[in-house]
Amino acid sequence: MTVSDFNVGTDLHLGTKAKAGAPSREAYDRIQDNPYKLVRQDPLSTFSIDVDTASYANVRRFLTQNQLPPKDAVRIEELVNYFLYSYEEPKGERPFSVSVDLAQCPWAPKHRLARVALKGREPDLARRPASNLVFLLDVSGSMNQPNKLPLVKKSMKMLVDHLGENDRVAIVVYAGASGLVLPSTNCDRKEQVLAALDRLSAGGSTNGGAGIQLAYQTAVSHFIKGGTNRVLLATDGDFNVGVSNRGDLTRLIEEKAKSGVFLTVLGFGNGNLQDATLEQLSGKGNGTYAYIDSTREARKVMVEQIGGTLLTIAKDVKIQVEFNPARIGAYRLIGYENRMLAHQDFNDDKKDAGEIGAGLTVTAFYELVPRGVKIEIPGVDPLKYQAVAMAEEALANEAMTVKLRYKLPDSDTSTLLTATVKDEPKSIKQMSDDYIFATSVAAFGMVLRDSPYKGSASFALAEELGQTGARRDPNGYRKEFLELLKRAKTLKRE
């Protein structure tokens, strides 16, 4: 992938002039929207799940500052997965449930929209296993801003306040040099942990590599078998000193993840956010990436979703969909561009994939073009020597078959789940509020990205869908989304 840099003060890709200010060093991986694919040429779609939410909070930060976000800062799957949905609870011993729903596509009425939905088992926090946590905190000079180190300290204090007496916390900092500010300390002495956080101040340049090594050494030294062993990295992502070989850094994180020490990445601040780096590190570390732009977001990540943040209930979760050529002519996966897998990776238990935390939900949308509906897709000429006959099953009333593989956190062997989906789409008005709201967020993301596949999607359509889907909103996050949508609509002058 290539990397796009965003400079504050220049015209954005959506045509809105950003607020003038100091040049930004923010960097984002370039994203090419998933295209439509012909089922007769490529009947399989394979990808890793993703429960990162950083993109949504980062987009919110731009819009709150009256700027449209750069195109490559918008990862649609992270926008959709920022919200929790009331999906079916898991049954039996399974760590999560899987369901698939099919409806008419709001922005392309002749198309269908399939939603693949996962729901992680709710955590029993009273019986949560003990946690061995290492806070790896960036205290370099770039963190000396109100929305950086001070917010980091507030966020970590929120988490500490909700830890139990059997949990342990160590604090490692890094700047010009890395150091162990607080040895691993039992949380029956929380006052020592909080006092160590209070003493932190910013200054110096960043040596993230050395800090990560010390953090992992500390976590391994106090490893809790059967417990949660995790490094929480809080930074603006500016690894600008001491990491000459990014490959060595990611290999270290991968190695430690295999040993049972996972990584959570928390991004802070603006003007220096190295989004591409932080997303990559969390992916290699069997963890998640969240962006914290406010105390409210800190509370969401550290308190409201503490189970999802600390407790991994399944790892290496992969999805593979086979489409029925008798029913579906073409398809495209909305989002997950940097989570695509080779088809053979689905059955390869050595291939890494995404994790899901307790109580979290995962949503993926496929836009389906029914057979016989015309669509402009570059294709190849009919093959001269190949003749592929449809299987008898293709004549059944099935749109697709969804397969899912996952491993339990302490296992190296995957479990397979399979479900078939009838080609019986409902109208969008017949769908649940959760379904409708998720389509609103997906449409919002496509318009922000100015996706060539957005069809008739607009901020107005997203708003109409969102208002219907936001009727149940216990935490106010859906109402906030509608306010952001209105702001984006004004900025783009739609």
Topology record:
Layout: E1 3-6, E2 26-29, E3 37-38, E4 44-48, H1 54-64, H2 76-80, E5 96-105, E6 108-120, E7 131-138, H3 149-161, E8 168-174, E9 178-186, H4 190-198, H5 208-221, E10 228-235, H6 246-258, E11 262-268, H7 275-284, E12 289-292, H8 295-304, H9 306-310, E13 312-323, E14 328-334, E15 354-357, E16 361-370, E17 398-407, E18 415-422, H10 433-449, H11 459-469, H12 477-492
Parallel strand pairs: 7-8, 7-10, 10-11, 11-12
Antiparallel strand pairs: 1-2, 3-14, 4-13, 5-6, 6-16, 8-9, 13-15, 13-17, 14-16, 17-18
Helix pairs in contact: 3-4, 3-8, 5-6, 10-11, 10-12, 11-12
Task: Give an overview of the whole structure.
The protein is an alpha+beta fold. Helix content is 27%, strand content 27%. The chain has twelve helices and 18 strands. The chain has a six-stranded mixed sheet with strand order 9-8-7-10-11-12, sandwiched between helices. Strand 7 (131-138), helix 3 (149-161) and strand 8 form a beta-alpha-beta unit. The longest helix has 17 residues, at 433-449. The two termini are 31 Å apart.
